[in-house]
Each structure stands twice: as C-alpha cells, then as structure tokens.
Amino acid sequence: MNLVLSSLVRAIGSQLHGRMLLLTFLPFALAIVLWGVLLWLGLQPLIDMLHGWFADYSLFRSTGELLDKFGLTHLKTILVPLLAMWLLLPLMILTALGLVGLIAMPAIARHVGTRFYPQLLQRHGGSLWGSVWVSLSSFAVFLVAWLLSLPLNLIPLFALFVQPLLWGWLTYRVMSYDVLADYADADERRAIVHSHRCPLMSIGVVTGAIGMAPGLLWLGGVVAVIFFPVLAAAAIWLYLLVFVFSGLWFEHYCLAALVRLRQQATAMPSAADMIDLH
C-alpha cells in the first residue's frame, strides 16, 4: 500500500509537469481529425440503422415501458441517438488508448525513468507488436463486456460499480505491459504482474472510476444529443488526460517494483554459489 500511495503522489507531481500536460495535445488533435471525419460520414447512417432496427422489431414499445418503469420517460424521444452515442463510446476509448500507447507512453517512460531511476538498466522486454496485441485483445474482451452490460446501465447505481471494474481491468492489462516494455525483460514483467496483481488492479480501478467522467457526459439527455460534437471532443480529451495520468501512476509503481525485484535478485545467492558453499 505504501508503494501505491507513494507512486500516486509522484504521478500527481509528474502530471503537473508542463511536458506531461503537452502530451495530450498531439493525440487530441489527431483524434479530433479522425473522429470529425467519422462522425460527419457515419453518425447519421448509424442513427438511421438503429431507428430502422427498433422499428422492425417493435423495440420502441418495450424500451419505452422499461424507461417508464425506471422513471426515465424523458429519454424516449432521444433513445436512438443516445444509444448511438453509447455505441461509439468504446471506439473513442480505443482511439484514446491507442494514441496514448503510441505517442505518450514512450515519453512517459523516458520522463519517469530519467528523472527518478536514471541508473535503472533498460532490458527492452517488450515490443510495439506486443503492445498492439495486448491492447487489441484486452479491448476485445472489454468491448464484449461493455456491450453486454450496456442495457444494465439503466439500473440505478449499476454503472457506478461495474464500469470502474471494466475500466480498471482494461487499464491494468494494457498499462502493465506498456510501462515495463523498455525497462523489464519478459520474465521480470511477468513476475511483477503476477506478484503485484492486486495493487495494479486497484490502481486500474481508481483510474477507471476517474475514467467514468467522460462517459457521464452522455447522461445529459437531450442536451447531450444537441451538443454531441462538443461533448465528443471533451470526452476524447478527458480520456487522453486520464490515460496519461494512469500511465504515470503505473510507470512510477512498476519501475519502483522493478528496482525492488532486481535488488532482491542481487541479494539472493545463485545456484552456483550455493554449490560452492557446500
């Protein structure tokens, strides 16, 4: 727990560094261009497809009754656009996660490593393709769980408990690979992830709870639909900011854990030494 808290304090200090704040700007610009084009070309066709699907399967009546039951009658008229926005949300998460992994994480690793662990040897146990595979495979599991839990978000307080767990698992899986890719070898990375699984998951859940903030922008009903492009831009920037902070927290924690692991390995006598002693 001391390591979790000390790495949190260091991550907050690093987040306030000007270089770390600037890290969100380039990914944000790229994401805005990408999503500006996608929303311009695809948002209305997606809404039309969902509207036709609801009409073909008589879902307006059943979902209307469900909304009435939970006191959400005001959402009936904007249900389809709101659903389209929620379906796009995981793709925005993937965009933010991918851009942070490709652009921000190498800079985060250099910033934390050179300032706090300048003597730590880099063993380069990770790779770009390994990071891509971990990110895509983890996001695929996250997406399935997200879609399955989507209707349950109408249950009061459900999202407050389930969404941080989903976010926490995704962040823990992706960040634990990326932050150790340069400094740890494969065996060291597996050892740290295994022995520090609970603390790493707790960091992921905390940052996952913070990561709920962009998603809450969609809960504004008709206001969210009207200002969707603005809210989408705000959500993307918040996701980037959360992921950068998550990367800093994981980086500080994992590099400190790596230092301890190597110190323990140095202190332990090797098998050859034990034979010599006998």
Description:
The longest helix is centred in the last third of the chain and has 40 residues, at 228-267. The protein is built from 13 helices and no strands. It is an all-alpha fold. The relative contact order is 0.15.
Shape field: elongated
Structural class: mainly alpha
Counting DSSP E segments of at least 2 residues, the number of strands comes to 0
Measured on Cα atoms, how large is the radius of gyration? 22 Å
- How do the SSEs run, as a string of H and E? HHHHHHHHHHHHH
Kindly, what is the distance between the CA atoms of the first and last residues, rounded to a whole number of angstroms? 39 Å
Q: Percent range for helical residues?
A: over 70%
How many strands, which pairing sense, and closed or not: the largest β-sheet? none
- The average pLDDT score comes to 80
Number of helices: 13
Which keywords apply here?
single chain, 81% helix, 278 residues, mainly alpha, disordered C terminus
